[in-house]
Specification:
Layout lengths: L3 E11 L3 E4 H5 L6 H8 L3 E4 L6 H16 L8 E5 L10 H8 L6 E5 L5 H14 L5 E8 L12 H4 L5 E11 L7 E8 L7 E2 L15 H6 L5 E2 L1 H21 L10 E4 L4 H11 L20 H11 L8 E8 L3 E8 L1
Parallel strand pairs: 4-5, 4-6, 11-12
Antiparallel strand pairs: 1-7, 2-3, 6-7, 8-13, 9-10, 12-13
Helix pairs in contact: 3-4, 8-9
This protein binds oxa(dethia)-CoA.
The site of oxa(dethia)-CoA has 20 residues, from helix 2, helix 6, helix 8 and strand 12.
């Protein structure tokens, strides 16, 4: 049995300045503020400019998390970075963040779990701490994915939903206590048969192809994410509520024991449906999608910050974060703040 557990000692977030309203989007494609609000709960989202690629957003969030934890990069043993919009096809953002933070030669592991990426990175980081392989780590989720969304009628079902942003936490090892404190448990799951329902096909070197991207791909805009919204919606509700229930049950906790549910912010109707399935009071469910949109790997830490700001996330509170995304992937984290 591991002798260590871990806890969250710092949180930092960063949102780019530019606010993109539904109204602005409706001037470029056949959509409306009313449609976007009713179908998703989103009023506006943030877009980062070219001076703020994903690695920069992630670095800024990490700096704030380090400050919040009252620690410095010299104390950090590892970085776990989640994104689906890296600055480059390779290497990932982990090494860039490591360098930008001025870290020594510590490891920086990129995690590809799309919207579940932060929950997966959280889970992986916790395993390192519990195994005694690290004492203090950074977990970061960051996205500047706005450039891949087309502002046209073909892509409107996807582009209106997403925004840029970043969030990071510091996790620290601590001696195991009775009763248990800090991070209790994590769950990671996926179903690769869901791949066609949400995918950005190109650039890539998939089956039957011997080129990375070609003229036909550009013409057909195969570099745009494609989503079958209803399929994704249905699976998101099912998997997120199942993951939450499973994690609570195996820790002998009930929904009533939770102080806060921090769900991935993809659509307010998904969040409400998960809340209803779990039977949790609506005031215990964190919703901040209105002004961020879906920030993919950054939704969970951004929602943590929203709950801290509104006073609901306080020391000792029992929290469950849960996410679902392309792959299909899902993940959940159960912890005392
Ligand atoms: O983070 C994980 C990844 N993403 C998600 O979890 C998102 C999951 N899916 C969803 O949130 C919802 O399915 C959407 C918000 C994408 C769409 O809502 P919906 O209620 O499932 O609508 P729908 O896809 O069934 O489309 C209804 C209509 C269609 O028109 P017709 O066929 O009824 O004439 C769409 O073409 O709405 C149309 N539509 C739009 N209209 C105005 C789709 N996107 C838009 C738009 N503005 N932006």
């Amino acid at each position: 049995m591991p002798t260590h557990s871990a806890h969250i000692s710092g949180l930092g977030t960063y949102l780019p300045e530019r606010v993109v309203t539904n109204h602005e989007m409706s001037q470029h494609m056949n959509t409306s503020d009313a449609w976007i609000r009713e179908r998703s709960g989103i009023l506006s989202r943030r877009y980062a400019g070219k001076e703020e690629p994903t690695s920069v957003l992630g670095t800024l969030a990490c700096q704030k998390a380090l400050e919040d934890a009252g620690t410095s990069i010299e104390e950090i043993d590892m970085i776990f970075a989640a994104t689906l919009s890296p600055d480059h096809y390779f290497p990932g953002i982990g090494v860039q963040i490591q360098n930008a933070l001025g870290a020594k030669h510590i490891g920086a592991i990129d995690i590809r779990g799309q919207c579940s990426g932060f929950t997966w990175a959280f889970s992986t980081a916790n395993a390192y701490l519990r195994a005694g392989m690290a004492r203090k780590v950074l977990v970061v989720g960051a996205e500047r994915h706005s450039p891949v969304f087309g502002w046209d009628d073909d892509d409107r079902n996807v582009s209106v939903l997403f925004g840029d942003g970043a969030g990071a936490i510091v996790l620290e090892a601590q001696p195991e206590t009775t009763p248990r404190q800090g991070i209790l448990d994590n769950l990671v799951g996926c179903d690769g048969s869901g791949l066609p329902h949400l995918i950005m096909e190109r650039p890539g070197m998939g089956q039957g192809r011997d080129d990375f991207i070609n003229h036909d791909d550009l013409e057909a805009k195969n570099f745009r994410p494609r989503m079958q919204g209803r399929q994704v919606f249905k699976h998101a509700v099912t998997r997120m509520s199942e993951a939450a229930t499973q994690l609570l049950q195996r820790n002998n906790l009930d929904v009533a024991d939770l102080d806060l549910l921090i769900p991935h912010q993809a659509n307010i109707r998904i969040i409400e449906a998960v809340g209803q399935k779990l039977g949790i009071d609506a005031e215990k469910v964190v919703v901040n999608i209105q002004h961020t949109g879906n920030t993919t790997a950054a939704t969970i830490p951004l929602a943590m910050e929203a709950a801290r700001q509104d006073g609901r996330l306080q020391k000792g509170k029992c929290v469950l974060s849960v996410a679902f995304g392309a792959g299909f992937t899902w993940g959940a984290n159960l912890f005392y703040w």
